[in-house]
Amino acid sequence: MWLERVNSPADLKALGQDELRQLATEIRDFIVNTVSVTGGHLGSNLGAVELTLALHRVFDSPRDVILWDTGHQAYVHKLVTGRRSLFSSLRQAGGLSGYPNRKESEHDWIENSHASTVLSYAHGVATAFDRNGERGRKVVAVVGDGAMTGGMAFEGLNNLGHSGRRVVIVLNDNGRSYAPTISRLSEGVSRLRLNPSYVAARARLEQRLRGVPGLGEYAYSSLQGVKAAIRELLEPMAFFENLGVRYTGPIDGHDIPGIEQALRHAADYDGPIVVHVLTKKGKGYKPAEEDEEQNLHDLKVVSTSAQTSSPPPAQWTVSFTEALLAAAEKDPKLVAITAAMPGPTGLLPLQKKYPERFLDVGIAEQHAITAAAGMAMGGLHPVVAVYSTFFSRAFDQANLDVGLHKQHVVFALDRAGITGDDGPSHHGVLDMALCLRIPGMTIFAPSSAQDLKVMFAEALDLEGPVAIRWPKGPARQVGLDEIGTGLNARKVRAGTDACILAVGKMVEACEEAADILEGDGISCCVWDVRVVNPLDPAMLMDAATFPLVVTAEDGVRVGGAGSHITDALAGLDEGRHAPPVLMLGTPAAFIPQGKPAQIHIDLGLDGPGIAASVAKALAAGRLPIED
Fold first, then answer.
1. pTM to 2 decimal places
2. Domain check: are 392 and 245 in the same one?
3. Which of 33, 98, 115, 421 could disulfide-link to 70, CB 3.0 to 4.6 Å?
4. How far apart are CA 49 and CA 75, in angstroms?
5. Measured between alpha carbons, how far is 555 from 146 in angstroms, rounded to an integer?
6. Is the pLDDT of residue 205 over 70?
7. Quick check: is 134 catalytic?
8. Has residue 26 got a pLDDT over 50?
9. Distance between alpha carbon 43 and the CA centroid of its chain, in Å?
């Protein structure tokens, strides 16, 4: 087993080509076996095996800096930099991160799980090396899985070309991001220069020009200008080199000797250079190669427990999809927009039924939201479906392009709150605080699948910007008597000692907390807030009569729903002092990976934790001091 002999990049450099091919096979088997148990990103890593081996044979990490964009294609990098024994803990609490992680290894420079950033990092590192007189150190930026569809990548590319910094840009072109890549550049980069029709047409044109009587050679020499013009329009070389970045390729991304040769030549170039490699996402694993939607981009672990034969619970995203399709059938002006994630955000059924009303912009959240504002100005009814964590990338556009212009754009924020295995970069804990900073934005937080459908229908009938946020995973199912209406909060249970205002997913935990407290002789009223902005006046008036108000949310405590409610209570003109408010939520911290349920327990956001906090506050007669 060659893999067992590789504990550092130096171990790769002594291997011959036959040994490297065997090692690549072993690595693919290892990754498939590991991810089948732990879950994680599969297809992107299977496609990057030979490329990673070549990178570490040519460059001297960590003296030479290898940066990954996106970071989920770095499993092979982790394997060959001494972390093989940790892979059983991949994406588990306290275990190996699913992305590069500076705390894990000196070979990891950035934790890069939000795409399109690496060229900016590379520009900065190369600038620092130049200023520090370390021109012998090389900087390599691996751009893949659709990261070149993001606008920030082009900003970094432009500055690299302008500055002339020595950076080797490896364009790992597998034609996809999460889904097939949305980019005319990617299509041209991947196909044009190898397209037989293009090559044949060029040859025919050259032959015909040479045969023009009296003008043949003159016409042929003029062809160089024509070819330059064609390249200007169509070829990737012209695109990159007009920005001051040299281009070479495309190269077979599974041919280690070919990649190594290209990388060595690129490393000697005195300036930024793109090495374009063509890889196959999911290579070597038939189920991944045949997955047309995403090449098994990521793999969810399905429990093998035989506890029950009942079907798995319905997911929140499925409820959104059903609501979206129902609305689209009634409203021909409804359009849906995603940023390279049509499957995970639940838009594929809409794309299939109404392809002309579906738009995937690639990894370009900022463009998606401003484009949605333009669509709204033009009379359409746009719905932007995006993960909560990625919404933060386009706050400026949501605030000024949508909010300032009071445009009716509906933001469908999936995976809000604590999400789990992907760690701090993927927890969706900021969206509530961000949305509350946008004047005039209506914010819904459903506590059940049924209420999500009611809220979505309501959102489409409102004016101005609207956000609906829901968590990851199975959705709570409730009866008709537990569904709210309009912009109203819903009183879940009456009480006398404290009033708990629960937001979204926290409703179920707060009901459990109220049951626990009831057993201890403490009577709690519980409200399902439902609409965080504007807040229901009836709920606020009721809460103001209690000796203690408690807010609970699956998002940042400071600046979130709790702060908003506290401010609203203080503003009531009831001739009395506002009641003390205990705000429960996530801390202002980067929360590590782990199972969401356990993270909520650790944060005191489960039923027993909330009950303990309420009891402590009532016993003290004042709010506990929070960190």
1. 0.81
2. no
3. 115
4. 9
5. 29
6. no
7. no
8. yes
9. 16
DSSP-assigned states of every residue in 561-576:
HHHHHHHHHHT--SSS
Q: d(Cα 92, Cα 593) in Å, to the nearest integer?
A: 7
Query: pLDDT (tens digit, 9 = 90+) per residue, 370-393?
Result: 999 999 999 999 999 999 999 999
Cα–Cα distance measured from residue 117 to residue 148, given in angstroms and rounded to the nearest whole number: 10
Residue whose tokens read 């009577």: 523
Question: Closest Cα partner for 167 from 229, 103, 243, 219?
Answer: 243
Does residue 219 surpass a pLDDT of 70?
no
Q: Which long-range CB contacts under 8 A does 19-26 form with residues at least 24 apart?
A: 20/50, 20/53, 20/256, 21/256, 23/53, 24/49, 24/50, 24/53, 24/256, 24/284, 25/284, 26/1, 26/2
The pairing of strands 246-252 and 524-528 is unpaired
Q: Please indicate whether residue 365 is annotated as part of the active site.
A: yes
Query: In this structure, are residues 36 and 114 in contact, taking their beta carbons and an 8 Å threshold?
Result: no
Spell 225-241 as b/e; 16+ CB within 10 A means b: eeeeebbeebbbbbbbb
Query: What dihedral do alpha carbons 314, 316, 322, 323 form, nearest 10°?
Result: 140
Give the count of alpha carbons within 13 A of 471, CB side only.
24
Whether 333 is catalytic: no
Which residue spans within 389-463 are E strands per DSSP? 410-414, 442-444
Catalytic member of 78, 176, 393, 476: 393
Question: CATH number for the domain including 400?
Answer: 3.40.50.970
> What residue has token string 């160089």?
224
Q: Which of 469, 504, 526 is the last residue of a domain?
A: 469
pLDDT digits (tens, 9 = 90+) for 308-365: 455 667 899 999 999 999 999 999 999 999 998 899 999 999 999 999 999 998 888 9
Q: Into how many domains does the chain fold? A: 3
- What is the domain extent for residue 603? 491-620
138, 281, 283, 472: the active-site residue = 281
Q: Which residue, of 272, 289, 306, is where some domain finishes?
A: 289
> From CA 444, how far away is CA 210, in angstroms rounded?
69
Looking at residue 305, its pLDDT comes to 43
Q: Among 111, 235, 365, 458, which one carries the catalytic annotation? A: 365
